[in-house]
Amino acid sequence: ELPPSEFMQVADSTWLVLSVVSNGREPPGCQATGVTKIARSVIAPLAEHHVSVLMLSTYQTDFILVRERDLPVVIHTLAGEFDIYKEEGGECVPVTCDDVSNGFLKAKPAASPTLHPVQSPQTRFCVLTVAPDTLPAIATMLIDVLFYSHSPPWDAATGSQDLDSITFFSFSLIEGYISIVMDAETQKRFPSDLLLTSSTGELWRMVRIGGQPLGFDECGIVAQIAEPLAAADISAYYISTFNFDHALVPEEGIAEVIQLLQQRQESSR
């Protein structure tokens, strides 16, 4: 319904959403798993078959977005490890390889993926949710933060922002569940009794992937972060955006994360 605009850039691809439950051989309804746990079983195999993914973590669960045209490759890649279902008329029905095999060509092995630079601002972030019925109470503040708060100046000469501090605000509304990521200073502007977080109230630090906009054709970007973190059993909250990918990790683990990613960069040279 959005009118065409010279100010709005739209990616060519149409994307489909995958959600992964805790046991790939159980029917839908099981507890969802986090990005770190599905790194080896889903993200890495898709990267190996040259499937580009977008990752979206929310307060409740994690979603993998794949291009609609890649669905046959996705099904064939994951069918050996998972039972796969599709939603039809509000019901989940099994999907078999035969359902999507028409015209399927086995993907060529992907070339070694590019390891993009990883930057870590000093900003501390909060991962929050809010009850839908209390959303109107913070709607004005949300609009102000989303559309009127000033971002750090963009340096046209270097094509980057000053990453000592980064402005990042994410709001998602999926099936009635709300997830918000904001920096700790911005959180102070909101009524504390309406924003819900984990019982530990932990703060998160960010690693941002890519020195320039990444595009959507490259594969292995999520795997670059997710695989080392999975090997070290470090949880992550991952958000792909139009230009960059972002992984949030618990603040106390940021030094270990940076060390792991630097070691991976060095070993790839």
TrEMBL record:
Residue ranges of domain Cytosolic arginine sensor for mTORC1 subunit 1/2 ACT-like in the record: 116-199
Source lineage: Eukaryota, Metazoa, Chordata, Craniata, Vertebrata
Keyword NAD included in the entry's annotation: no
All copies of domain CASTOR ACT, residue ranges: 11-78, 201-262
Species name: Dryoscopus gambensis
Pfam families: ACT_7, CASTOR1_ACT-like
One GO cellular component, as annotated: cytosol
One GO term (biological process): negative regulation of TORC1 signaling
Superkingdom: Eukaryota
Key words, A-Z: Cytoplasm, Phosphoprotein, Ubl conjugation
Task of the protein: Functions as an intracellular arginine sensor within the amino acid-sensing branch of the TORC1 signaling pathway. As a homodimer or a heterodimer with CASTOR2, binds and inhibits the GATOR subcomplex GATOR2 and thereby mTORC1. Binding of arginine to CASTOR1 allosterically disrupts the interaction of CASTOR1-containing dimers with GATOR2 which can in turn activate mTORC1 and the TORC1 signaling pathway.
Family: Belongs to the GATS family.
Family annotation (Gene3D superfamilies): VC0802-like
Segment forming the signal sequence: none
Subcellular location: Cytoplasm, Cytosol
Assembly mode: Forms homodimers and heterodimers with CASTOR2. Interacts with the GATOR2 complex which is composed of MIOS, SEC13, SEH1L, WDR24 and WDR59; the interaction is negatively regulated by arginine. Interacts with TM4SF5; the interaction is positively regulated by leucine and is negatively regulated by arginine.
Name of the protein: Cytosolic arginine sensor for mTORC1 subunit 1
GO molecular function: arginine binding; identical protein binding
Gene: Castor1
